[in-house]
Specification:
Layout (H helix, E strand, L loop, with lengths): L7 H9 L4 E5 L3 H10 L3 E4 L3 H4 L11 H14 L4 E5 L9 H13 L5 E3 L7 H9 L3 E7 L18 H16 L4 E5 L3 H10 L4 E4 L7 E4 L1 H5 L16 H17 L14 H13 L20
Parallel strand pairs: 1-2, 1-8, 2-3, 3-4, 4-5, 5-6, 6-7, 7-8
Helix pairs in contact: 2-4, 5-6, 7-8
């Protein structure tokens, strides 16, 4: 069956028909191709790029320019998935005009099809303005990594009646602001199910249980390619960090043992050409040479 480009109506249809939405982070050309081959619905260039690729201690230091570079690479690799770029910290918090301008850069300069921003009711006016400018917006509530210090660390959100009600209010505010979907992170499963049932837009969970409209994971967690920590809500489907380490160690061992490269990795010259080369060298005027230990000779001079 011929693949078709995933669009926003496709996500709405999946919610209406109770068909799970799949979403993964991706930060480069080859991983974007892999997501496309697997048929992932949403290719998400998350600001987790800063932690799992750039080595930052959190998502906060990531810049617009760094995000745009990753987005451009992903856009070149994914043809079918819906492309969503994550707006980094302080690219939308300082004011509506800055937010709209920066959101536009994701589309105009990096070929994204939508942007994501963190926050609920307080950020809803910004989401509304970006949406009004013709840019599709995905919201993100619950545990919001850009505000993790204010939240008191990587804590589960919505664990009390009051905080769970606040999450629902945040989701409704984002829907009212025109967001086409919401990421809901690290909240109790029953709270996530309640939010999912009460809003008319897709809710994509990460650490939010089974009953959201879809699931998202950080690709490097899924692949076992990031070894500093593994969130409880993440599942490793592979262990690439160990596999890569083993492959690199084998390369080192074979180079040191002179078993790599072998004949199958090498190139040859015809015997006649080789003989002609040796004859040419033999017939040529001997080149001026000097001993490497002779400090009186200027080794940088052309001879």
């Amino acid at each position: 069956m011929e693949r078709k480009k995933v669009t926003l109506p496709d996500l709405y249809r999946k919610k209406a028909q109770h068909l799970p939405i799949t979403m993964l982070t991706t930060y480069d050309f080859p991983s974007a191709q892999a997501l496309d081959r697997a048929g992932i619905d949403v290719a998400f260039v998350g600001d987790s790029y800063g932690m799992v690729v750039l080595g930052y201690p959190s998502t906060v230091p990531v810049t617009m320019e760094e995000m745009l570079i990753a987005c451009r690479a992903v856009a070149r690799g994914a043809q079918y998935a819906l492309l969503v770029g994550d707006m980094p910290f302080m690219s939308y918090q300082a004011g509506v005009n800055d937010a709209v301008r920066n959101a536009g850069r994701f589309l105009k300069e990096a070929n994204m099809e939508a942007v994501k921003l963190e926050g609920g009711r307080t950020i809803a006016p910004v989401a509304r303005a970006i949406n009004a400018a013709g840019i599709s917006v995905m919201g993100h509530i619950g545990l919001t990594p850009q505000n993790v210090t204010q939240l008191g660390g990587w804590r589960t959100q919505g664990t009390t009646a009051a905080s769970a009600r606040a999450l629902l209010d945040d989701a409704l505010a984002l829907e009212d602001a025109g967001c086409f979907a919401i990421v809901l992170e690290k909240v109790p499963d029953r709270v996530a199910q309640l939010v999912t049932e009460r809003v008319g837009i897709p809710v994509i969970g990460i650490g939010a249980g089974l009953h959201t409209d879809g699931q998202v994971l950080v690709l490097h967690d899924l692949l076992g390619y990031f070894d500093k920590f593994l969130p409880k809500f993440a599942k490793r489907y592979a262990h690439l960090h160990a596999t890569i380490g083993e492959a690199v160690a084998r390369f080192k061992s074979e180079v040191e043992a002179r078993t790599f490269p072998g004949p199958e990795h090498s190139f040859s010259i015809d015997d006649e050409e080789w003989t002609a080369l040796l004859q040419a060298i033999q017939d040529a005027k001997p080149a001026r040479t000097f001993a490497a230990h002779d400090d009186s000779v200027d080794a940088t001079r052309a001879y």
